[in-house]
Design goal:
InterPro entries: DsrEFH-like. Keywords: Signal. The chain is an alpha/beta fold. The protein folds into two domains: 30 residues; 117 residues, DsrEFH-like (Hypothetical Protein Ychn, Chain: A). Strands 4-3-2-1-5 form a five-stranded parallel sheet, sandwiched between helices. Strand 3, helix 4 and strand 4 form a beta-alpha-beta unit. It is globular and about 40 Å long.
């Protein structure tokens, strides 16, 4: 098995185990962060509606599995080519609106915005801008948030 397939299989298995543990009583890992609710950061760095739909499905499934949007903090961070899906004219725009109304935080990388000449007004309403997408993901992980990359 080549390195890419091995890495993808490992990532898939890790995500599957995490989600399974959330749904099986008695197996749930300690997800609370310093006495608060768990946090999950989802990376999307591809301009692919299928990846975005998968990320949005993962977020929605977590909300449902954990008992509602008030039980988990979820942030989807887009950078690189993935930024295109957060634009106001995105093909997944309708789903972004549902995500925002469900309490899912959508974050766009300012570095990518600057490189691609994208302004805040070009983004879907409700999208936040973070200084650097990779830094945002790193800081969330350091803060105890789970990391998912569909």
């Amino acid at each position: 098995m080549n390195t890419h397939r091995r890495h993808s299989a490992s990532r898939f298995f890790s995500t599957l185990c995490f989600l399974t543990a959330l749904m099986v009583p008695g197996l749930s890992p300690s997800l609370a962060i310093a006495g608060g609710k768990p946090g999950v950061v989802i990376q999307v760095s591809e301009n692919d509606p299928a990846k975005w739909n998968l990320a949005l499905n993962n977020a929605g499934n977590l909300i449902q599995a954990l008992g509602g949007p008030d039980k988990v903090d979820i942030e989807i961070v887009a950078y690189g080519p993935g930024l295109a899906m957060l634009k106001a004219d995105s093909v997944v725009g309708e789903r972004l609106g549902v995500a925002v109304s469900d309490g899912i935080h959508l974050s766009a990388c300012h570095n990518t915005m600057r490189a691609k000449h994208v302004e805040q007004r070009d983004l879907y309403l409700g999208v936040d801008v973070v200084p650097a997408g990779v830094l945002e993901i790193m800081q969330r992980q350091q803060g105890g948030w789970a990391y998912i990359r569909p």
